[in-house]
Amino acid sequence: MANIVRTDPFEDLLRGFFVRPVEFGSGMMEAPGIKVDVREAGNTYTVHAELPGMKKEDIHVQIDGSVLSISAERKVENEIKEGERVLRTERSFGKVSRSFDLGSELDDAHAAAKFIDGVLELTLPKKAGPKSRQLTIA
What we know:
Elements: H1 9-14, E1 35-41, E2 44-50, E3 59-64, E4 67-74, E5 94-101, E6 112-116, E7 119-125
Antiparallel strand pairs: 1-2, 2-7, 3-4, 4-5, 6-7
């Protein structure tokens, strides 16, 4: 015998339209990570990191030897006017960070950073290491 299920067409239409947390793959609420491209040319690394919607004041870059750390924080904007209500929000807020070892000591004194259109571009020269020399055997 078939079961009869009563549905409300308006409920189906509006389901998912009102505010609820957005899931990023797992069942937990987490901000998407920082996506990077790293290139090496001669004695310089070039890093492009996607940070859409961030302000350059909220981005921090730290160099520790050969380890590069990038962190950024997007703060929640609670600007709701009187008579207005939020129907849906999908933008993520919070702190994201990424660290990785580039394999060579970095010259932080000559490093440069630009932030244009949501992309952080880092130019990271390698630190000049001691030159190897051949020893003469006496």
